[in-house]
Structures are given as C-alpha cells and as structure tokens.
Amino acid sequence: MKFGEPSPNATSTHSSKDSNLMFLVIPGNPGVIEYYEKFMETLYLANGKKIPVWGISHTGHVSTKHMDGTVKISTGSSAGIFSLQDQIEHKLAFIQHFVPSQTSLILIGHSIGCRLTNETSLEQQVQHKLLFIKAHIPRHTRLILVSHSIGCFINLRLLPHLGKQSYYNFFLFPTIERLSSSFAGRIICAFSPFFFLIRWLLLTLVFLLSFLSTRIQSGIIRTYFGRSVVDECILRATTSIFDTSCVDYSFTLGQEELKVVKELDKDLVEKHIDRISFYYGWNDHWCPIEFGYNMKRHFPSADVRFCENKIEHAFVLRFSDKMAAIVNEWFHRIYNAKTERRTVQNGQNKTNTSETIHNVTLYENGESEDVFRVEKKFQNKLL
Q1: Average pLDDT in the 161-182 region?
Q2: Is residue 241 included in any domain, yes or no?
Q3: What is the Cα–Cα distance from 262 to 126, expressed in whole angstroms?
Q4: Residue 371 and residue 339 share a domain
C-alpha cells in the first residue's frame, strides 16, 4: 500500500526534511496492511503529503487476488555472483510470484538446499521485507520504519541489514521478548495441546464463510464489532482474509511467535538503541507495561513512552487517528533534535577548521615553523 512516492534522485542538502525520507509500516499479525490504511493516510496528510508512507503485508497473509504489481527477483551481486542470501531471496520471490497462495508446498531440499528450506516463518518474513526494500525502494531513501506488535520483532532483525538506510524506528506495542509469558500468551499456551483441532475448526469456518458474498461477510464483521464505528478499510482487510491459506499462514506464524520470541536480544537492541523509540500500552495483554519498565532499566538512555490514552494493542481498529498523531509529533521532535545536533556539529567543525587554518605551518628555508612562532619572531625583530 502506498501514499506518495519517494524522491527518484538523492539530495545532498538538508534544507528540506522530506527530501529523502519515507515512512515504511510493518504490520502485526495478521499481517494485512489494509488494516493500517487509515493510520497511514493520516500520517501522510499530517506531513502535507510531502513524506511518502508505504506499508507491506506479511507474505502469505494476503490472497493473490488482492495483490498488485510484481516482485523482482534478485539478480545477484554486481559481479554476477549469487550468495546464499540471494538464493533464499530468489526462492521466496519465485514462490510469491508464481505459486498460488492456496497451494500447500512440500519442500524437498537436498544438501545446501536443506538450509534454504529450513528458514523459519518469522525469518521468511524478515527476508520478504528485505527483498521488498531492495526491489522497490531507492537506496538513497532514508526509511522511518513504523512497526506494530510482532512487526517490531521483524523490524529489529532488519536493522543489521539496512545500515544507514534506516533513519529511525518506532516500535508500537512491541512484542520483541517473552511473548509466552504475557497474559494472552499464557492463555494460548494453555490450549497448545489442542492447536491441531483449533486450527482445523478455524480453517473449516473460514472455508464456509468464503462462499458468502462480500456484503454478508461485512455484515458479520459489523455484528462482531457491535455498535462501534468500523472503518471501511477494516472491513476490506477482514473480508480479504476469508481465505483458508491466509488464515493458516497467520495461525502458523502465531504459533511460531510463541516459540521464537523469548528473551530480549539485548546486544541487538543496544547496538541500535539510539535509533529506536518504544511505545508501550497500559493494559496490553501481549506486551505488558512491565516490559517497558525493564527496557528503561536495561537501557536508561532508551526513548520509551507509556500510553496515556488507553489505546488498545490492536490500535488500528479504533485509534488509527490518535496513533498517527502521536507518531507524527514524536517523529518531528526527534528529527528536529537530530537537525539541531547536526547544526552544532557543523559549527564545531567550522571552528576546528578555522583553528587549523590559523595554525598552519609555514615553510622557511626548508624548515617548518608554527605560525605563532613565526609571528613571535617577527615581533622580536620589530622590537
């Protein structure tokens, strides 16, 4: 999903804050970016349509009939050599572009091919985002990544690969540690022995609902939300996942999250702490506020905020406007602080340059002397 386009050419000047910047939204689970449409549009309009706002769904979470465009397949390095990473991206791109989403794959890997097929679903989501960035976003574009829930875990794994292309990162309700120990995680884990049964009951229900018209499906969704006002993008996003393969991918990813998201990767967080801001909810069943306190204790310099507006973990359902306003204000405060620091540094550099020029070395009769010593010698001659 796109709002605006990035600048086609790199700009060396810092006179305009939107020159090479772009917001990129990484969703939670289910990873249907259409849920974030209102959030993205609000963020786009808040910046006068000057900073593009793009979003990318999780691979497998959206039916192919709802996807547009094509995915470019990796062409390898400039030397025409394909690394193991290129091979993984190539297989992912091939599957996404040529294999119908409803097809259940039986992967048979031989030798090193076993390494390619052994990538976890979460790791595949990371590779999918890297492939998207590599194929569709100009290298000079500085990314402001806005991630939600498990999208923050994916975002964190992206940072070592993005380098300077990552300008800043906002982690909203981040499920990046001890997911199984959260309130919701403990409840789900209690039903883990019945996952097989729950999965097939869920898929059967979705299969039956998929035969209904979109109008009836929307009516069911409105009934579920009761008297709450439901945005059209929420209806479209939910009806788009009345697809057994999409629900299966989402369910499987949820199972894996509980197994993979364990202890906080403190080394990785510490390495990028100056480019990450964390937003924790007061009553978040997936990411308790205690995790935010622990984050602040482990990293005193971390930019951590705690929600004061009773915004729910699934903020896209009712609080897209508020969350977009919070992120926008947050971004501008951080950008202005960075700009101020850069201005101060440039001023210091100019001062240092002036001092260097003032302390140039003069060459006289093949010998070097400091300018102050030369001036002193001339003064003595005058005396």
Answers
A1: 94
A2: no
A3: 17
A4: no
Name every residue whose Cβ is closer than 8 Å to that of residue 208 and which is 6 or more positions away in sequence.
Answer: none
Structural tokens at position 360: 């140039």
Residue 51 sits at φ, ψ, to 5 deg, of: -110, 115
Q: Is residue 253 part of a domain?
A: no
Q: Does residue 270 belong to any structural domain of this protein? A: yes
Q: Is 49 left (phi over 0), alpha (psi -120 to 50) or beta?
A: left
Q: How would you write 250-276 as a 3-class SS string?
A: HHHHHHHHHHHCCCCCHHHHHHHHHHE
Residues across the chain: 383
266, 278, 20, 66: CA torsion to nearest 10 = 100
Q: Looking at the 3D structure of the chain, how many domains does it have?
A: 2
- pLDDT for 124-171, tens place per residue? 899 889 989 988 999 889 999 999 999 999 999 999 999 889 999 999
Task: Supply the DSSP string of 317-345, one letter for each residue.
Answer: GT-HHHHHHHHHHHHHHHHHHHHHHHHHH
What domain range is 372 assigned to?
A: 349-382
- What pLDDT score was predicted for residue 124? 85
| Beta bridge partners of residue 54, listed in sequence order | 2, 24
DSSP H or E run through 195: helix 195-209
Three-class secondary structure of residue 279 per DSSP? strand
Output the pTM of the full model: 0.77
Closest to 29 (Cα-Cα) out of 196, 241, 251, 220: 251
The C-alpha atoms of residue 61 and residue 70 are separated, in whole angstroms, by 16
- Does one domain contain both 339 and 354? no
